[in-house]
TrEMBL record:
Function, in words: Has a role in mitochondrial fission.
Natural source organism: Coemansia thaxteri
SUPFAM superfamilies attached to this UniProt entry: TPR-like
Name of the protein described by the UniProt record: Mitochondrial fission 1 protein
Subcellular location field: Mitochondrion outer membrane
Family: Belongs to the FIS1 family.
Keywords: Membrane, Mitochondrion, Mitochondrion outer membrane, Transmembrane, Transmembrane helix
Magnesium recorded as keyword: no
Amino acid sequence: MSNEKYLPYAADAEESLTDGELLVLRRQYERELPQVRIQTKFNYAWGLIKSRAKQEQKLGVALMHEIFNENRERQRECVYYLAIGHYKLGTYEDARRFVELLLELEPENAQAQSLRELINEKVAREGLIGLALSGGAIALAGIAIAALFRRSK
């Protein structure tokens, strides 16, 4: 299945903010330090998760985890973006855990369903690549051992 099928629902997993958009969110967050309002923190975490830079994505996931753990009324919103953040970071088991949590709460949630498909496709694709690489390494090792065996005769 192609990713285009999911873009209307799981676009957050593929789209990034511009540097300018992220800068606006960062400045707002920094202006409010040390007592950042929860909405400002959420917006900044969301923007970081949508970044192209892994370090920014990691910070976004960390901030989103803080909101998730500290504010029960915001947990539902956080779950979806935590799933996306972990997906973008390549921590697929964590991404699955959060998307499944959201689907337990909202089984008909189209965003969560399409994100689950993206995660599953990525895991399957990377699993196949991993199998191919390990299979190739085993084949090379077998060739090397056979060559050594022939030389020793």
